[in-house]
Each structure stands twice: as structure tokens, then as C-alpha cells.
Amino acid sequence: MVAQAAPGTAAPVVLIVGDSLSAEYGLKRGEGWVALLEKRIAAEKIRAKVVNASISGDTTSGGRSRLPALLTQHKPAVVVIELGGNDALRGLPLQMSEDNLNQMTEAAQKAGAKVLLVGMQVPPNYGTDYSNRFSGIFPKVAREKKAAVVPFLLKGVADTADPTKLFQADRIHPNALAHPRMLDNVWPELKKLLK
């Protein structure tokens, strides 16, 4: 017999802990991939509530310090960690970013949540070695912690023939046209965790 939630129990929470890419920076409310995720969950009749705790400019250190209170407050079933891009843009030590992602993943898992790490890549002007090592952090942490991973949030956005069409004037933040693609990158892995 399958255990069913008692009537009136709260829907499982999907907690998004991210930076400007998840916080709708420069977009109208409702255009970002997290808002689109809420609509997709509703359309697919999946019982879940999305809590977007993303802050523009946040780093893995900021996320790590904020996470314990978020876990206590929201008691999420799934935690999506979309952090690291600002670490790289600031040239922070890769080991620090990796340690923070490890700690966040572990804390969420200890709190009973499944974890999805959303990876990022940095432009090649940081040097090939740095770029490769940075993008490798996400799959490595996911492997070590047995968490799910999306290797690159901006696949099909930043790596197209003319990515300028999909970015705001600052060429860092994706525009509204890019966000459905970003959701399509996250959705297959996230949907597995919601089953």
C-alpha cells in the first residue's frame, strides 16, 4: 500500500537557492525560469510548492550561510543550488566554492532533502585551466554526494552561434527569451526528484 499525504498537509517544497540567474534580475516578474517552473509544475499536476530564495550577486559563501535558516523555515523536499557564477566572476578560490557546495549539499541532505546542483561555466578569458576546473566542480560534488546535477544552466543560451540575442545589454544576464530554455535544462533532472 502506498502512503498518501493526509488531506490538508502542505505540498512538498522545492527550495531554489541561487543568484541573479534565478532571481529574475533585469526581468519583469514572472519571466524568470523559476516562475516558469511554478507554471510547469502546475501544468503537469505535480504537487509541489516553489520557494525562490535567490539573491542577485550571491556567492556559494552567501548561500552556505543562509541555507540553515532556509532549511529550518521551509523544510524542503528538494533543494536546487544554483550558485557559483559570482564566485568565478570574482576570481574566488575554486576550492572554497567546492567546499561551500559540498557543505550546502550535505546540510540539505541531512535535513531530508534531495539536492540538484545547477552548474555554470565561465567565459574563456579566465583561462582554459580555470574554466575547466570551475565547470568540473558541479559534477564532482554531485558524484561525491550522490546528488543530481545539471552541468550547465545556460546550455543553448551562452553557447549558441549568436548568444547576444539571448542576453541583456550587460551580456551577463539572460533576457526573457532565454529563460524557457534554462528551465528546459533544469526540468528533466528536477522532475526525477519530484516523483
Q: Could you say how many structural domains there are in total?
A: 1
Overall CATH class: Alpha Beta
**CATH fold title:** Rossmann fold
Q: Helix tally? A: 6
Instruction: Classify the helix fraction into a percent range.
Output: 40-55%
Instruction: Estimate the strand proportion.
Output: 5-15%
Question: Looking at this structure, what is the CATH superfamily?
Answer: SGNH hydrolase
Give the radius of gyration. Answer: 16 Å
- List the uncertain runs: 1-6
Largest sheet: 5 strands, parallel
The count of β-strands is 5
Overall mean pLDDT score? 94
Q: Tell me, what's the shape?
A: globular
Going across the major beta sheet, what is the strand order? 2-1-3-4-5
CATH architecture: 3-Layer(aba) Sandwich
Detailed description of the structure:
There is one protein chain. The two termini are 17 Å apart. α1 packs across α6, α2 runs parallel beside α4 and α4 runs parallel beside α5. Helices cover 42% and strands 12% of the residues. The N terminus is likely disordered. Strands 2-1-3-4-5 form a 5-stranded parallel beta sheet, with helices on both faces. The chain is of the alpha/beta class and 195 residues long. The chain has one domain: SGNH hydrolase (Rossmann fold, 3-Layer(aba) Sandwich), CATH 3.40.50.1110. It is built from 6 helices and 5 strands, in the order βαβαβααβαβα. α5 links the parallel β4 and β5.
